[in-house]
Amino acid sequence: MSLNEQDGKGVNQWKTLDRDLKRLGRLEHGAQHVSRSLVAPGIALAFIGLAGLVAALLMGAGPGQGVVVVGAAIGAYMALNIGANDVANNMGPAVGSKALPMLGALVIAAVFETSGALLAGGDVVKTVATGIVDPLALQDPTKYIWVMMAASLAAALWLNLATWIGAPVSTTHSIVGGVVGAGAMAAGFHAIDWTMIFRIAASWVIAPVLGGVIAAAFLAVIRRQMLDVEERIQAARRWVPVWNGIMAGAFGAYILYKGLKHVFPIPLNVSCLLGVGFGVACWLISIPLIRRQSEGLENRKKSVKTLFSFPLIAAAALLSFAHGANDVANAVGPLAAIVHTVEVGSISSSVGLPLWVLLVGAMGISFGLLLFGPRLIKLVGSEITKLNTVRAFCVALSAAITVIVASWLGLPVSSTHIAVGGIFGVGFYREFHAQRRAARPGALQKGKPVPPEERKRRLLVRRAHILQVAAAWVVTVPFSAVLAIGIYLLLTLVA
């Protein structure tokens, strides 16, 4: 018998040891949590270092090797941030509607982003300075290299910051801002095409409004056709094939005009005509498939929504393919320009895209979305407004059609702005529809009656995200420009 037991105190003689073990357990748990959070940045740094190493091996020990190595590292960093930020636009609606789990969305996005970059990324890209800075004002190859490097690094840093604060922004506008800042420092403000900058600023309003209006209109039509009728399954058998045809036609034209423009350019009118053919074929094929898929389904809205799952997944995959084909140039276009300038010693508006440069961009986008993409996917898919498969389908279809309409009008819109605008559009339509239904005489309310002032408070779109996203869009170009100015000045001082 212990002394404590003899004294009748009953004190646990292992109390101090238990307390120390608990502290060690908490310390170990905290260390594991920190180590897990460092895995993704560690892999990203390893990829950036590998890109620099590949550039060093391929360029050899010739003049300008160090510049290309640094440019490759910056290009890899830019590609990682494009994957982390932009993929949310394509996969967010599909994940938010639960048509795809997060892991499935990441795998599909990685496959189609990489395929789009490698198959349709193009052998030749126009440098990002084309159309923004007067080429005659940048005749010094050294200045040109510093402009490309500063613009790319500034855009990458801004994308990294935007991803960290949870704001989906335009990759293209980020790189444009970088070129404006660095180009103005190198060639003067008179060399900047301010008309192009004004058009980009106008797209901050045009793109999201256009995308939101189209998405809301699609949702209103689908509700009237299938969700707010008595015989929902019968209506779905008639109208879902039609919407599948519209989706196939829109994405057919979108892929032909935007996704494959680097492989074989097709005029917009020809792309639209071919898209109509794809749409008719898909409509005819979908009729028996939807009839078979709808057999045995209950006459409920939920049953109709399940019929949109596969078209939504296909739309997300096609958006990822087109994004990889288009935005790989934003990631490695400056790098390709640097490599060309170092090898040839002259400036060109269009440069070749070496295979290793294309691989840096393709793999960087895929690594970025796999390592850092889930955060913004969750925000876009579920934190702005609640999405189901029908609403997400309307957002995806709106993105493709809005790009086509904007291209026809000659407007430089951003797919990021369109997709996010589409999500806000369906959210605001939900609010409008819910308020109108509640205001009907004799309308039934679930649960306890809700007074009008309480209904106004229970909004279906989170207003805080409007201010956050809009502010990020507005500051993208000026912030990237200011950052590029600082980086350009630093490079010129160091060099």
From TrEMBL:
Q: Does Transmembrane show up as a keyword for this record?
A: yes
- Compartments it resides in: Membrane
Query: Topology relative to the membrane, per the entry?
Result: Multi-pass membrane protein
Q: Which UniProt keywords apply?
A: Membrane, Phosphate transport, Transmembrane, Transmembrane helix, Transport
Main subcellular location of this protein, as a coarse class = membrane
| TM region positions | 38-61, 67-88, 100-120, 144-167, 174-192, 198-222, 242-260, 266-286, 307-325, 355-377, 389-409, 415-432, 466-491
* Pfam families assigned to the protein according to its UniProt record, in alphabetical order: PHO4 (PF01384)
Q: Which family does it belong to?
A: Belongs to the inorganic phosphate transporter (PiT) (TC 2.A.20) family.
Protein name in UniProt: Phosphate transporter
Q: What is the lineage of its organism?
A: Bacteria, Pseudomonadati, Pseudomonadota, Alphaproteobacteria, Rhodobacterales
